[in-house]
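[SOLVED] Need 3D model of a two-part complex

Original post:
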Amino acid sequence: MANEKVDPSTVDVDFAAEERSAVIEIGDVEYKLILTTKATKEIAKRYGGLENLGTKLMNSKDFELALDEIVWLITLLANQSILIHNLKNKDDKKELLKEDEVELLTTPFELAEYKNAIMASMLKGTKRHIQSEPSKNVEVG
Amino acid sequence: MFIRLIYYGTAQLNRSEEEVWLMPMGYLMDLWECHKQFTGIAKPLMEVSIDDVIPVGI
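Solution:
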């Protein structure tokens, strides 16, 4: 890790994550779903890019497969807020969610709500506020 | 691509690597865009002055 001695009080990812997250309830506990850089990388690894995720989720004919994907995504996105908490609170770390726990604590009826929350967290997580004039750079590497 | 993002975040934006990994994607891209505009690599699409946001007299 670079810059290991960073002062935790300067960490502002929590504030930024606050307005760029969607909230869901799993087993009476609220979790914030956040599309972080880390989560984006994991999704890219699994689906080949964010753009393929919607197709995979919405067109999944196999219900069991769709459930697996949603459980994986919820676990990944909810764990981002726990990781942010752990980064800010080194002495009060929370345990990460596991896919089995999410499977046990949720019902298939909640599927639609979760799909919406996943999509909302994606939209909010990738939301941009700063725009520049179109770049004239050529594509490299 | 992610190596570049981590490089931008750590070397150019002076964040820890862990912090960069846990930043919402759009927030990191916004910070990088601000950095590019500040250093003159990119030109803002629209200039908004503080007077446009907070009316004079407050």
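Edit: The helical segments of chain A are 13-18, 37-47, 50-58, 63-88, 99-105, 111-126.
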